[in-house]
Specification:
Blueprint: H1 4-24, H2 32-39, E1 46-47, H3 59-65, E2 71-75, E3 84-87, E4 94-96, E5 102-104, E6 109-110, E7 114-117, E8 121-122, E9 128-129, H4 135-146, E10 150-154, E11 175-177, E12 182-184
Parallel strand pairs: 1-2, 1-7, 7-10, 10-11
Antiparallel strand pairs: 2-3, 3-6, 4-5, 8-9, 11-12
Helix pairs in contact: 2-3
Family: Belongs to the 5-formyltetrahydrofolate cyclo-ligase family.
Enzyme class: ligase
Cofactor: Mg(2+)
Length: about 180
């Protein structure tokens, strides 16, 4: 297996297995540490995400943050395009979006300065392996070209991996929050 595509596919498969095992044994209240971190950025426009499959759930932290400033969720526009972010609120009406993630029924786009980023795997240096569509990489690159943009990964400890197959286009995380720790890069 020398082709980078094959190596990434195997790393994703391994990451999904570790994430599922962690998801199946998760404890309630896991967004508490994320809420603590976000409290230091009250009022700064941020985006979370609506969890799909076995992703760790940031909704409680997003709901708390929404009392202080704008919170959004990503909306996929098309393959190969950066994400847009539509304003979200805990009581807002949602509809099905691409890949099974819920999105606000009515789009109200804004640019966040903090992105809570889901993932398949991460490493100790801030590397992140996503689903392979490059959506967050393109989006972070564009936002960071305009202003400082903080990428906070949110994952289970079990999603950590050594030697992730990363490329120059992969945007690094600035911080990572798991159920037991906070890493800053």
């Amino acid at each position: 297996m020398t082709d980078l595509t094959d190596i990434k596919a195997q790393a994703r498969k391994d990451g999904f297995a570790r994430r599922k095992a962690a998801f199946d044994t998760r404890l309630p209240g896991m967004a508490g540490r994320l809420s603590e971190i976000l409290a230091g950025y009250r009022g700064v426009p941020l985006s979370g995400y609506m969890p799909i499959r076995t992703e760790i759930d940031p909704i409680a932290a997003m709901a708390e943050a929404s009392a202080y400033g704008p919170v959004g969720v990503p909306v996929i526009q098309a393959a190969g395009q950066p994400l847009k972010f539509s304003t979200w609120s805990p009581e807002g009406v949602l509809k099905d979006g691409p890949f099974g993630a819920k999105v606000p029924e009515v789009d109200d786009f804004f640019e966040p300065e903090i992105l809570i980023v889901p993932m398949v795997a991460f490493d100790r240096t801030g590397g992140r392996l996503g689903y392979g569509g490059g959506f967050y990489d393109r989006t972070l690159e564009g936002l960071r070209a305009k202003r400082a943009t903080l990428a906070i990964g949110f994952a289970f400890d079990a999603q950590e991996a050594d030697g992730l197959p990363l490329e120059p286009t992969d945007q690094p995380l600035d911080m990572l929050v798991t159920e037991s720790r906070v890493l800053t890069f």
